[in-house]
Prior knowledge:
- The protein has helices at 3-17, 25-33, 40-52, 76-106; strands at 23-24, 56-63, 66-74.
- The chain has four helices and three strands; from the N terminus they run αβααββα.
- By secondary structure, the protein is of the alpha+beta class.
- The two termini are 24 Å apart.
- The mean pLDDT is 92.
- Helices cover 64% and strands 18% of the residues.
- It has a three-stranded antiparallel β-sheet with strand order 1-3-2.
Amino acid sequence: MNIQFKKGALELCVLALTVKKDRYGYELVEEISKRFEISEGTIYPLLRRLTKEGLFSTYLMESTEGPPRKYYKLTDKGEELKNSLVSEWKQFTKGVNEMIKEGEIGG
């Protein structure tokens, strides 16, 4: 998949996946990787930036499978941004899909 497509959508994916459930970094990598290929190296810098911007709060929780895990909890500010990005995404993809359809009909 085109790297620029992924970069633009990754922030929205991370925000969307944390709305209903707090998640740890590797769990996000696994969930996103079910749909398209990403590396751990792309998620952790994004999580650090979003936390620094106040979109996530973090906490540690013991794990039965190793060291404690850092969980990311979406803040109210994060949820507001997610809602805004979802609205923009839907409008954007609608326009792109319409142009693709026009190109197929005209072509």
